[in-house]
Amino acid sequence: MKYAFYLGCTIPARAVNYEVSTRKIAPKLGLELVDLPDFDCCGFPVKSVDSFTTLVMAAKNIAVAEEKGLDICTLCNGCVVTLVEANHELKHKEELKDKVNKELAKLGREFKGTIEVKHLARILYEDVGVEKIKKTVKYT
């Protein structure tokens, strides 16, 4: 299972331990986490000031993963909410998607709505599965 590994701006700044532990367990659980250098902040910090800019920022990151054909794995709760909401909204509101894509075109990007965004906890539960996790855990 291969995912675009989205750290956002909070994990590298305030929760490096979460990133390190995720990178350590991922291969043992059959997860390949791919770093994409074009990822930026998800937009959550500006949401209360400018919700459209937040949508554009989130859509840009989703478009980066779409270009690689990878679903996104994120660790940050703020990022997952922002990216999932943007992904859902833009998949279901064509006019808004067109408006966002007009902005993304300036960056040479396009939101298509072809991937999913998932928090690591959801991936562990739904994609890896509890049984595989149980079999992988080593007791010392």
UniProtKB/TrEMBL annotation:
InterPro entries xref list: Cys_rich_dom (IPR004017), HdrB/HdrD_reductase (IPR051278)
GO molecular function: oxidoreductase activity
Entry-linked Gene3D superfamilies: 1.20.1050.140
Sequence ranges assigned to domain Cysteine-rich in this UniProt record: 3-83
Keywords from the UniProt entry: Coiled coil, Oxidoreductase
UniProt entry tagged with the keyword Coiled coil: yes
Signal peptide start-end: none
Full protein name: Cysteine-rich domain-containing protein
Pfam families: CCG
Keyword Iron-sulfur set for record: no
Alphabetized PANTHER family for the sequence: COB--COM HETERODISULFIDE REDUCTASE SUBUNIT B 1
Coiled-coil stretches: 83-110
